[in-house]
Design goal:
The protein is built from two helices and five strands. With about 70 residues, the protein is an alpha+beta fold.
Length: about 70
Protein backbone atom coordinates (compact mmCIF):
# COMPACT_ATOMS: atom_id res chain seq x y z
CA UNK A 1 0.00 0.00 0.00
CA UNK A 2 1.06 3.56 -0.68
CA UNK A 3 0.08 6.72 1.09
CA UNK A 4 0.05 9.74 -1.17
CA UNK A 5 0.02 13.13 0.48
CA UNK A 6 -1.25 15.13 -2.42
CA UNK A 7 -4.57 16.30 -3.73
CA UNK A 8 -6.36 15.24 -6.88
CA UNK A 9 -6.25 18.88 -7.94
CA UNK A 10 -2.46 18.92 -7.76
CA UNK A 11 -2.24 15.68 -9.79
CA UNK A 12 -4.67 17.16 -12.30
CA UNK A 13 -2.50 20.27 -12.64
CA UNK A 14 0.66 18.20 -13.17
CA UNK A 15 -0.72 15.98 -15.93
CA UNK A 16 -0.88 17.11 -19.58
CA UNK A 17 -4.40 18.42 -20.19
CA UNK A 18 -4.55 17.08 -23.74
CA UNK A 19 -4.03 13.49 -22.47
CA UNK A 20 -5.77 13.32 -19.09
CA UNK A 21 -9.16 14.36 -17.80
CA UNK A 22 -10.76 14.32 -14.40
CA UNK A 23 -14.02 12.40 -14.73
CA UNK A 24 -14.96 12.13 -11.06
CA UNK A 25 -13.83 13.61 -7.76
CA UNK A 26 -11.63 10.52 -7.24
CA UNK A 27 -10.60 9.64 -10.81
CA UNK A 28 -8.37 11.10 -13.50
CA UNK A 29 -8.08 9.01 -16.69
CA UNK A 30 -5.92 8.89 -19.79
CA UNK A 31 -8.26 9.85 -22.65
CA UNK A 32 -6.48 7.48 -25.06
CA UNK A 33 -7.20 4.46 -22.82
CA UNK A 34 -10.98 4.89 -22.66
CA UNK A 35 -12.54 2.08 -24.68
CA UNK A 36 -16.17 3.13 -24.25
CA UNK A 37 -18.38 5.15 -21.96
CA UNK A 38 -21.99 5.93 -21.17
CA UNK A 39 -23.66 8.43 -18.87
CA UNK A 40 -22.46 6.62 -15.74
CA UNK A 41 -19.12 4.93 -16.47
CA UNK A 42 -15.99 5.07 -18.61
CA UNK A 43 -14.48 1.67 -19.34
CA UNK A 44 -10.76 1.02 -19.44
CA UNK A 45 -10.12 -2.69 -19.93
CA UNK A 46 -12.05 -4.55 -17.23
CA UNK A 47 -12.39 -1.41 -15.10
CA UNK A 48 -15.51 0.73 -14.91
CA UNK A 49 -14.62 4.24 -13.79
CA UNK A 50 -17.55 6.29 -12.45
CA UNK A 51 -18.37 9.50 -14.33
CA UNK A 52 -19.66 12.53 -12.48
CA UNK A 53 -22.83 13.86 -14.04
CA UNK A 54 -21.22 17.18 -14.95
CA UNK A 55 -18.04 15.56 -16.36
CA UNK A 56 -19.59 13.54 -19.19
CA UNK A 57 -19.82 16.60 -21.46
CA UNK A 58 -16.15 17.42 -20.76
CA UNK A 59 -15.22 13.84 -21.66
CA UNK A 60 -17.13 13.98 -24.96
CA UNK A 61 -15.33 17.23 -25.89
CA UNK A 62 -11.93 15.81 -24.89
CA UNK A 63 -12.43 12.65 -26.97
CA UNK A 64 -13.61 14.65 -29.98
CA UNK A 65 -10.54 16.89 -29.85
CA UNK A 66 -8.07 14.04 -29.21
Amino acid sequence: NHLVLSTMKSFENELPKEKFIRVHKSFIVNIDKIEKFNSKFAEIGPHKIPLSRNKKEDLVKAIESA
